[in-house]
Every structure is written in structure tokens, then in C-alpha cells.
Design brief:
45% helix; 40 helices; alpha/beta; Rossmann fold; 5-stranded mixed sheet; 4-stranded parallel sheet; DNA-binding
DNA sequence: ATCCTCCCCTAC
DNA sequence: TAAGGTAGGGGAGGAT
């Protein structure tokens, strides 16, 4: 997995080679080069689908134990028990056994329908669990007990874990909703009642969401059929697409001759079934029977049955109105990114101690007796998809979207035999094929990766209670204070179990800190382990190339190279002061420390989520102004995506940043099909006083930000929306939901906004566009922050609300009754009269803000001038002034298109 | 000195 | 054809 980024950035640098030559050279060296073409040799005697076998075994065991159910209350229910529960997980398992349900030993969203969990003591945990559950209901064990007592399946909604359920308090986002739209609470409540959660992690939505979500209470699925379907999925994935007759035979022989490694005897009793299933699957009609090792013959037809595969027809913003959704379903980098984040959230803190960080500082870190194990799966994507193809173990294999020998699809993962040909992750498939014409290409199988990753973490947690996830296939374990006598033995045991369970190999590094453990894994790969004792650290580091250090990428490597520094030994010769002068305080210190093997990071250090966003930088094309509304649609969909992601984490954000990739002037067509090519990266942001996850608010903000770019849509090659200053939903509800504080903060800000043009806050962007900073909003938000910190009642601070004319009528109309009454009181009862006559004002000025993005704007000017002419005149003159300023600043796009969007008008105000 | 925005770099 | 995402850290430079 570590190769992906290097290669993908390398490809992108192909587009930018004139500007950033160093990127290309810096990316030439990878781990694969260093370790050459070692083909993975298993320490265990078997290969193949032991994972499938083991799962089958567990399920068979469960079925054997299950009594015949007179009343299968839990038919279709499959639980995973998370952590300590009352009653115990074994008791819950018994209930499942006796009443027709299923019990899963490993968490998999593919199989599990409900997560059972007792109340969580630590407030932070709930968000991690929410993210981890990704839409699956997290329910208290009493749901099971009560269902049994009632002799029927009760709805789980009332049993949902309290900390995870939204409370019904009104929230600010409802202020911004239009009258006819549902509040987010409504949506969530409906979701609860309808069983199928509306909110889900985007990665969870791929293909399996139907299975995972719909097999809840109401849609009962016969347990046995569910399992067999999954087994089919696992075994049949890709096989009919790639296997040849010859290979079919070889697989059959292999399976006959060799049993899976550990537990061989236990497994053998199910083998006949397993074997026949394999054969059944392999005998599916296959249109491709050529040898995978013969050049152009091995055209792989990607299985159309793979559920993760969206329509092939649509691959750009020009042809697909749902491009955003479809894109994320197929993006490997999206999966890598979301998994990384998911697993980090899922296991943020050790199971035995919440404050392990502090205890570590006082003991292991200082005493120098730490024992850290770094575990990393070998060429993860390839390993997973060739588990069922032992005959391909020593053949060059890669995972890629396309097998087109002339194409620009990127190789995502290459096994070691492929690497011996110089094939690297990130390389175009045409280049890879040029290096190795008989390279076997497999398509992605995201579901399988997820399943293996879940198993990987289940194993790690069974062996260690201090696990820090790095990504879906990589983690650190701190075994310092466990009862482990020999970390090397433990590492060996873990790797063995990973192999036996998943059919994939893992490597491990063992050392006294995370840095050295990670470096040790580099030596261990593939399929090995390596221990670096403290006395051997210096020796090991001295010849190590600097880019082996985490944090040293191609740019830093190139800069250091210019100083004749290529190894850690050479780096060590430079003083800390000098490094800090050249590379900044933090980076300099990091280099100084790492070159000496010093690393003070702690396994399990908790990291709060700081930002959430979504980018699309592929397939983005808008031909001309006719596509403007398509661009708007794109932005809308992006906001939906971000809103969903925020909600799935239980977060709301205050700062919104829109990134645009703009084709660089005179840039050639990108080498990569539908790529973004050589671009300028532009970004604008805005901060609002109170956090939101509401999609309509996001859309308004995004459109305003978009307008501030003054960009010709033809030039856009990528768009990203990011939300930061995140606040936990519950925390923010408790601490900040105070209407007066919001109103009065708004007032303070509006005082500054009264003279927007004379504040001197506008500045010039690199691209010449004018940026109007939201000094008003930022000022108020800072004020609010300080207020919260001081535990001071914000209602006591300022007593003057903003003028009525600054409030958005639509927002006011949608306030909950009690909130409206409160606000009306603040305005001395004038609010009622204001909203009854002010509808036209709101719509008109809002339209003006959003300029051409708001289609209905055109016909509203008469209304606008009829009502409150003074106010509107002022606003119009401001906008005219800004337009003038934009023209002066060269902000008119090449097409002569001018936007009038302005971020100073915050969403909650006119 | 501190905070902010914009942007780059990095890892997976 | 093809799916070049995600998130954290940090530096530069400007505002206060």
C-alpha cells in the first residue's frame, strides 16, 4: 500500500514535469527496487482460500450448535458483539443460536446486521463507534433479552446506544432549511423507524450496502442463504474472469493435494463441500480462457457481476449527472483514504486503558524498554485477489482498472514478481505492459479488501490491546507492558494467523519505537520479519536512504540531495539548527531526530478528526457555458457527499473550503485519460459562527465560494470541498446552542460588515482573482470561541441583535416555534410583521449573492426594488463595487464571464 | 506573539 | 479509455 501514493504522485508529476522536474526523479526509487524480485515464499505450507474455509467452518459450527427453532425470532439478524457486554457475548451467542439468529466472531459489514454494545463510558468513543459502524445499528444487549422475553423481534430503534442516537434538540442547521424540506432530525428519526439507516459511510455503500442494511429487522433473509451467497462472492470473485482451463485443473489439483495450513484436520471435513463449490464457481461460463501468461491473449474480461462496478457508460461530468457518486464507487484512492480513516477511528484507544498515552510517556518511552511491532500486509491488493490462484504466486500480477495495453489506467498494486520487471504502483498500465507483456491484470475487489482488513484487525486485537491503525493493511502494536516475553515470537504468531485466516502474507518489524519498527518492516518484506535491537539502530540507519524515513518524500529528498545528503548517516552530520533553518522548525527537528532513530510518538496516541472533505480531480470537464448548470449540479452532489460524511462521523463544521483545480494556461492535454493535467490549485474558504452538517447550508456556502473564484467553467479540472473546525454534534449542542449568542455574535459581525469596502481586507490571489475575506464572520466566530473557553454566558455579552433586514426570511420562517418566539421577543415582537411582508426581499437578495448560480435571480429585480429600497440599493452598490474591483484585479475569466458571488454574505444572513 | 488563510508536502 | 482521494502537518505571509 505504501507504494500507491508514490506512484500516483509520480503520474501526476508527468503532467507537471516542466514545473516540477524533481517529482519524476524522486519517484524512481521505491521499496520494491531495494528488495528486488524476491518471490514470496510462505513459511506455511498452504496457499489458497483458507479464509473462506475458516469462515465456513465457523458458520457450520454455529449451525451445528443451533437448535431447531420453534420461533426463529432473530431470523435475518446477525450480531457482532463489541467489547464487554452484560450479558456476556457468549450468552448473546446462545440466544442467537437458540432463536434463529447469527453470531459473528469477526466484524464484517458484509455479514453483520447489528452491532451489540453496552453504554460507552468515554464520550469520544461514540464517534469512533459511529464511524466504525458506518450506518449499521449499534444496539444495547437488552434488545436481545427483551425480544426473547417478548417472544418476537422488537424494533431495535429504542435500544440504540444513547450516545449514538441524535437527541431531538433543535439545531442551527434547521434554521437554514427551506420550509418544505425535512429537518435533519426528521430524517434521522425516520431512518430509525424505517430500520434502514439513511446515514452511511460512502465506502459502505459500495455494492454491499443492500446486503448489510436491508437484512435488518424487516427484511428477513434466510441465514443459510445469506452465508452461502457470501461464500460464493468470496470464492467466485474474478475467477470466471481470468482463469483458464489449465488453471482450473491446477487449482483443483492444488486443493486436493494440500490442505490449508493450521487447523488442517478440522478443515478437512468441510473440504468436499468447499471443493465442489470451487469447482462450481470455476465452471461458470467464461469468455476468457486464454493463458494469463501469454501476451495479448490474456485479455481479462472484468466480471460484470461484481456489485461494486457502476455503469461503464459514464465516466465524466459531461455524460453522467451522477458522476460524483459513481466516481467514488470506483476510486481506489478514495477507498484507501476512507479505510485509513475508518480503521484509525475504529481502534483509537487501547481496550484496557483510555489514557494509555500518559502512562507510556512515563514508562516505556523514557525507560527505553519499549517493544513495538509494526505489521504490514504484503502488496495487499494483489495478495487478496490472487488468494485463490496459487498458480499465480510466482507470476507477475498487478491490480488495475483496465487491461488495455495502450491505456493510461494506473497500476494500483504489483506483486514482487511484477516488481522485478520494474513495475510499480501508480504506473500506467501501458508502461507496465511494455515492461512485462505477460503481466496478469486483476480488477479491484474492494469488498474482499475490506473483509481481509477486518480480519487483519480482529487478529491484531486478539493478540494485543494497544493497536494503532495506520491503514487498512498496516498497524503498530505496543507490547511493552503486555505479558509478551518475546515480541519476535508474537510477531511470528500473528503473521501466521493472518496468513491462515486471510490467505495473505504480512511482514513485521520489531523495535523499540515506531520509527525503527517501521524501518525494520522494510527490511522484512516480503513475508518476513526483522528485529532491530537498540544497539543495532545506528548501524542500520547509517546507510539507509533518507527517503526511507517517514516524512521524507520526493521534494524533501530532492532538497537534501542538493546538499549532498542521501543517507541517514549523512543527514546525521548536519546540525539541528542548520536543518531547522533550511526546512523549518518542526521539519528540521524531525529530520534531526529521525536520522538518529529518535521517535517520541506513542502507539495509540489519540487523534481527533480535524477535517472532512471530498475531492474529485478526474473526469471533470465542462465544455462551455451551457454546462454551467451541470457544474452547479456537480457542486450540489459534492455537498451531499460531504454532508453525508460529516453526519456519519457525528460532526458539524464551521470552516468550509472549496478547492478548484484550474487548467494551467497553455497546459497540454493531460497524458492521463480524463486526468486533471497541469493545474493551478486555488482555494477559498469561509468560516461561519456555528457548525453545521446540513446539506442545504453546505450548498449555499459552496455556491458562494464557487462564485468568488470568477472562473470559466471550461478551465475546471477538479473540485474539492473540505470542512474543518469540526465540532462533535452532542458537544456543540450542549455548549453552543444558545440563540442569543448566535444572534448577538451576528450583530457584532454585522457592525464590521457595514463598511465592507473600506476595511482593506480584500486581497489579491495568485491567479489575480480578488478575495474578500469574511472578516465579519471570522471576527464573530473568534469571539464565540473565546466565550466558550471562558465559560461565560454569551447572552450576557452583547445585547444588540443585528438589524432585521440582515436576517434571512426563509431561515426565520423555518425556526422551531419556541426558537422563533424567543427571537421575536428579542426583536420586540417585530419579527412577525417582518417575515409576513419580507419574503420577496429574502429571495431576491439571496439570489444576488449567488449570482448566476441562482437561476431564479433574473426575474426578481422588480420585487427587490419594491421592498426596502434603501437596503437593496446599498447591497446592489456593494456588489457593483465588487464587480468593478474584480475587473480591475483581472478577475474576469478568459471567457469574459464574471461572477458576482461574495463570501461576506454568510448563509444565515442576507 | 498569535492567529488566520492559502498552499504544499506526505502517507496510505 | 478510466475512476489522480483523504487527512494531517507545517510553512509563508499577512492581520491583529
Amino acid at each position: 500500500m505504501s507504494l500507491n501514493s508514490k506512484r500516483s504522485s509520480s503520474n501526476r508529476s508527468n503532467d507537471n514535469n516542466k514545473r516540477k522536474k524533481q517529482k519524476i526523479t524522486a519517484n524512481q526509487k521505491t521499496l520494491g527496487v531495494v528488495w528486488g524480485s524476491n518471490s514470496p515464499k510462505s513459511p506455511f505450507s498452504d496457499v489458497g482460500s483458507y479464509m473462506t474455509e475458516k469462515n465456513r467452518k465457523l458458520h457450520n459450527q454455529f449451525n451445528a450448535e443451533a437448535t431447531s427453532h420453534n420461533n426463529p425470532i432473530f431470523a435475518g439478524v446477525s450480531i457482532f458483539v463489541d467489547g464487554f457486554t452484560v450479558p456476556s457475548s457468549q450468552e448473546l451467542r446462545s440466544y442467537m443460536l437458540n432463536y434463529g439468529g447469527r453470531f459473528e466472531n469477526y466484524f464484517s459489514r458484509h455479514r453483520v446486521t447489528h452491532i451489540i454494545c453496552t453504554n460507552l463510558p468515554h464520550s469520544k468513543l461514540k464517534n469512533h463507534l459511529r464511524a466504525f459502524s458506518a450506518g449499521l445499528p449499534v444496539v444495547k444487549p437488552t434488545w436481545i433479552l427483551d425480544s426473547v422475553a417478548s417472544n418476537r423481534l422488537l424494533t431495535w430503534a429504542p435500544y440504540q446506544l444513547e450516545q449514538l442516537s441524535n437527541n431531538q434538540q433543535p439545531k442551527l442547521s434547521t434554521f437554514f432549511l427551506s420550509r418544505n424540506s425535512k429537518s435533519s432530525e426528521d430524517t434521522f428519526t425516520n431512518a430509525l423507524c424505517q430500520v434502514e439507516p439513511v446515514i452511511h459511510d460512502s465506502s459502505a455503500s459500495v455494492g454491499k450496502s443492500e446486503d448489510g442494511h436491508s437484512s435488518g429487522v424487516e427484511k428477513v433473509v434466510e441465514p443459510s442463504s445469506q452465508i452461502s451467497m457470501e461464500a460464493d462472492d468470496t470464492v467466485s470473485e474474478n475467477t470466471d474472469a481470468i482463469m483458464t482451463d489449465e488453471q482450473l485443473t491446477s487449482v483443483g489439483v492444488k486443493c486436493d493435494e494440500e490442505d490449508p495450513a493450521g487447523g488442517r484436520n478440522d478443515a478437512s471435513k468441510d473440504e468436499r463441500n468447499f471443493q465442489s463449490e470451487l469447482e462450481t464457481n470455476y465452471q461458470k461460463p467464461s469468455t476468457s480462457v486464454s493463458s494469463p501468461c501469454s501476451d495479448d491473449q490474456n485479455v481479462i474480461e472484468f466480471p460484470s457481476s461484481v456489485s461494486t462496478r457502476p455503469s461503464k457508460q459514464c465516466h465524466s461530468t459531461l455524460s453522467d449527472p451522477n458522476f460524483v457518486e459513481n466516481y467514488f464507487k470506483s476510486s481506489r484512492l478514495h477507498f484507501i483514504g476512507t479505510w485509513r480513516s475508518r480503521y484509525r477511528k475504529r481502534f483509537p484507544i487501547s481496550s484496557t486503558g483510555v489514557d494509555n498515552g500518559i502512562s507510556n510517556i512515563n514508562t516505556s518511552s523514557v525507560s527505553g524498554n519499549s517493544a513495538i511491532i509494526h505489521v504490514d500486509m504484503d502488496c495487499f491488493f494483489v495478495s487478496v485477489v490472487i488468494r485463490n490462484h496459487p498458480e499465480l504466486l510466482d507470476k507477475p500480477v498487478a491490480v488495475c482498472h483496465s487491461n488495455n495495453s495502450k491505456g493510461t489506467a494506473e497500476v494500483s498494486s504489483a506483486n514482487y514478481p511484477a516488481r522485478s520487471y520494474g513495475i510499480r504502483a501508480g504506473m500506467f498500465v501501458r508502461d507496465a505492459k511494455a515492461l512485462c507483456p505477460h503481466l496478469v491484470i486483476f480488477p479491484y475487489n474492494f469488498e474482499a479488501y475490506e473483509e481481509v482488513a477486518d480480519q487483519f484487525y480482529s487478529i491484531l486485537h486478539r493478540h494485543c490491546n494497544k493497536v494503532q491503525a495506520v491503514s487498512c493493511d498496516e498497524a503498530f502494536l505496543d507490547v511493552t507492558h503486555s505479558n509478551v516475553e518475546d515480541p519476535e515470537l508474537l510477531a511470528s504468531s500473528i503473521r501466521k494467523e493472518i496468513y491462515e485466516t486471510t490467505g495473505c502474507t504480512a511482514s513485521a518489524g520489531i523495535a523499540g519505537n515506531m520509527l525503527i519498527a517501521r524501518i525494520a518492516t522494510r527490511t522484512a518484506k516480503p513475508n518476513g520479519q526483522y528485529h532491530i535491537s537498540p544497539e543495532r539502530v545506528q548501524n542500520h540507519l547509517s546507510q539507509l536512504p533518507i527517503n526511507a524515513l517517514p516524512g521524507v518524500g520526493h521534494v524533501l529528498q530532492e532538497k537534501l540531495k542538493k546538499q549532498n545528503v542521501q543517507t541517514c548517516g549523512q543527514l546525521m552530520m548536519i546540525s539541528k539548527v542548520s536543518l531547522q533553518n533550511d526546512y523549518g522548525m518542526k521539519t528540521g527537528e524531525m529530520l534531526w531526530n529521525y536520522s538518529r532513530g529518535i521517535d517520541n510518538r506513542l502507539v495509540g496516541d489519540f487523534q481527533e478528526c480535524k477535517s472532512i472533505g471530498a475531492d474529485v480531480n478526474w473526469g471533470v470537464r465542462f465544455k462551455d457555458m451551457k454546462d454551467f448548470f451541470q457544474c452547479e449540479n456537480f457542486l450540489t452532489k459534492l455537498c451531499k457527499e460531504v454532508s453525508l460524511r460529516l453526519r456519519s462521523c457525528g460532526m458539524q463544521g464551521r470552516t468550509f473550503s472549496l478547492k478548484i483545480k484550474k487548467r494551467r494556461k497553455d497546459a497540454d492535454e493531460p497524458a492521463k485519460f480524463m486526468g486533471c493535467g497541469d493545474c493551478e490549485n486555488l482555494s477559498h474558504s469561509v468560516t461561519i459562527p456555528v457548525g453545521t452538517d446540513n446539506v442545504e447550508v453546505l450548498q449555499r456556502i459552496a455556491k458562494q465560494l464557487f462564485g468568488s473564484f470568477y472562473i470559466d467553467v471550461k478551465e475546471i479540472r477538479g473540485i474539492g470541498l473540505h470542512v474543518s473546525r469540526l465540532e462533535n454534534i452532542e458537544t456543540s449542542k450542549q455548549e453552543k446552542f444558545n440563540l442569543k449568542s448566535w444572534v448577538t455574535s451576528g450583530s457584532a459581525s454585522m457592525d464590521k460588515q457595514k463598511h465592507p469596502m473600506s476595511n482593506g481586507h480584500d486581497k489579491q490571489n495568485m491567479d489575480g482573482t480578488s478575495v474578500h475575506e469574511c472578516r465579519d464572520l471570522r471576527g464573530s466566530s473568534v469571539q464565540m470561541d473565546n466565550n466558550i473557553q471562558n465559560n461565560q454566558s454569551s447572552a450576557d455579552r452583547i445585547s444588540t441583535p443585528p438589524p432585521l433586514c440582515h436576517l434571512d426570511v426563509e431561515v426565520i420562517r423555518n425556526l422551531p416555534t419556541e426558537v422563533f418566539s424567543e427571537l421575536n421577543e428579542i426583536y420586540g415582537g417585530k419579527l412577525v410583521a417582518y417575515i409576513t411582508k419580507g419574503k420577496s426581499i429574502s429571495e431576491s437578495s439571496s439570489s444576488l449573492q449567488n449570482s448566476l448560480l441562482e437561476k431564479e435571480a433574473i426575474n426578481k429585480e422588480e420585487e427587490l426594488l419594491d421592498v426596502e429600497p434603501i437596503l437593496q440599493k446599498r447591497k446592489l452598490s456593494e456588489i457593483e463595487a465588487m464587480q468593478h474591483e474584480a475587473v480591475e484585479g483581472g478577475a474576469v475569466s478568459d471567457s469574459g464571464f464574471l461572477h458576482t458571488g461574495d463570501r461576506r454574505f454568510a448563509p444565515m444572513l442576507l
